[in-house]
Design brief:
Length: about 240
């Protein structure tokens, strides 16, 4: 039976069954922190309707989003494999549901199921690619391009053209001052490309938003996040 999380649903049946005994369904509220940068990672999250932002924060408090994870992925995985200290701050961008598993339970399943480790390593590789693309995007693309790309990425993961995000959310994700987002959204609203109300932004003209987004959209879209673990089975992967 599918869970709604693409990563879990791509796993071979036996692994999915083992995981299901330890997975706990949780509700995540907007702006909740799953981990702060450097904090111990005790649980791994598999978002369903929730969307999680991974941030880097400078010593003087500036933030920038390095990855966005929704129903296609996993949060906390890299840290669990390595130091068990979170490399980034992970905050709920859009509140909703997720499944979580304790790291010690996951490690026990990994010992018995090498196919799961192969799928996780592939996912970590995809995350590194996503972060590399965000690095290029943040350096070379305009705020309007980055805002349109980010809005499309959030809406795609949410599965709705209207998402509950504020100017402060977008500014924190894109590493710019809030008035810059206010001005960017004002221009897009005037052209009726987007609309704003009650701390939410709606995409009115999807084609126009895609036109204004940068080339990074194709690489960061969940349409490209198919996990080859679907082709694995636990015995052959072992
Ligand atoms: Zn870009």
């Amino acid at each position: 039976m599918n869970t709604g999380n693409f990563f879990i649903d791509s796993l071979p049946h036996e692994i999915k069954q083992r995981l299901s005994f330890q997975l706990q369904l949780v509700k995540l509220a907007k702006h909740d922190h799953l981990y702060l940068q450097g904090q111990k990672v005790d649980s791994i999250y598999f978002p369903l309707s929730a969307i999680i932002s991974k941030y880097q924060t400078s010593a003087d408090g500036h933030t920038i989003e390095v990855a966005l994870t929704g129903k296609e992925g996993v949060v906390g995985l890299t840290s669990a494999f390595d130091s068990r200290e979170s490399m980034n701050s992970c905050q709920v961008c859009i509140g909703g549901s997720a499944m979580k598993i304790r790291v010690d339970f996951l490690m026990k399943i990994l010992e018995a199921e090498p196919g799961l480790e192969a799928a996780m390593m592939h996912y970590i590789d995809a995350q590194v690619k996503q972060m590399s693309r965000r690095l290029l995007c943040n350096r070379f693309h305009s705020v309007e391009q980055r805002f349109c790309t980010w809005l499309l990425l959030v809406a795609e993961r949410r599965g709705k053209p209207r998402v509950r995000i504020t100017h402060a959310d977008a500014a924190r994700a894109l590493g710019v001052h809030r008035p810059t987002i206010t001005e960017t959204t004002r221009i897009l609203c005037e052209k009726k490309i987007i609309a704003q109300s009650n701390a939410a932004i709606a995409i009115n003209d999807l084609d126009q938003v895609k036109e204004l987004a940068c080339e990074c959209l194709a690489d960061l879209s969940i349409a490209k996040k198919a996990v080859p673990a679907r082709r694995l089975n636990s015995k052959s992967a072992a």
